């Protein structure tokens, strides 16, 4: 049983199907608070990668949801957001990407084989 690697396997599928503007690093590590899970993306200093952090202590289904949620953020990401103080992270663009990624992860045949693990 390796739920941790299942998250990485799904992430690899997403990299192929929905590549964001930057390469994606996925880290699975313990988080201190539930709300941290939406603190899911940022780039490193060089703006070469998105960093998606997923709580190692969460159940697999929540980790999978964090992956979908965060992937949608990365796909909807725009540098223009940074210049708009009223920008809300869960805007229409994010919602559309969330739906597409959710559909892929939860219902695509290949991803479906991974979603519940071995
Ligand atoms: Zn969010």
Give a structural overview.
This protein has one domain (3-115): Zincin-like (2-Layer Sandwich), CATH 3.30.2010. Helices cover 47% and strands 12% of the residues. The protein is built from four helices and two strands. It has helices at residues 3-17, 60-76, 92-107, 109-115; strands at residues 23-29, 49-55. The chain has a two-stranded parallel sheet with strand order 1-2. The radius of gyration is 14 Å and the shape is globular. The structure holds zinc ion. Residues 38, 69, 73, 89-90 line the site of zinc ion. Zinc ion binds at residues 38, 69, 73, 89-90.
Distance between the termini: 6 Å
Mean pLDDT value: 79
Q: Which ligands appear in the coordinates?
A: zinc ion
> Which H/E pattern describes the elements?
HEEHHH
Radius of gyration of CA atoms, rounded to a whole number? 14 Å
What is the CATH level 1 assignment?
A: Alpha Beta
- How many helical elements? 4
Helix content estimate:
40-55%
Bulk shape: globular
- Strand order in space, largest sheet: 1-2
Number of strands: 2
What does the main sheet amount to? Answer: 2 strands, parallel
Q: What is the SS-derived class?
A: alpha+beta
Q: Say what the CATH topology is.
A: Zincin-like
Low-confidence stretches: none
> In percent terms, what proportion of residues is strand?
5-15%
When the domains are counted, the total is 1
> How does CATH name the architecture?
2-Layer Sandwich
């Amino acid at each position: 049983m390796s739920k941790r690697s299942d998250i990485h396997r799904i992430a690899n599928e997403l990299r192929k199907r929905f590549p964001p503007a930057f390469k994606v690093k996925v880290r699975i590590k313990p988080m201190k608070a539930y709300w941290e899970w939406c603190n899911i993306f940022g780039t490193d200093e060089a703006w070469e990668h998105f960093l998606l952090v997923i709580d190692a202590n969460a159940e697999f289904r929540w980790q999978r949801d964090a992956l979908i949620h965060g992937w949608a953020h990365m796909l909807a990401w725009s540098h223009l957001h940074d210049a708009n103080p009223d920008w809300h992270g869960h805007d229409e663009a994010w919602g559309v990407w969330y739906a597409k990624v959710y559909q892929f992860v939860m219902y695509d045949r290949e991803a479906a084989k991974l979603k519940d693990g071995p």
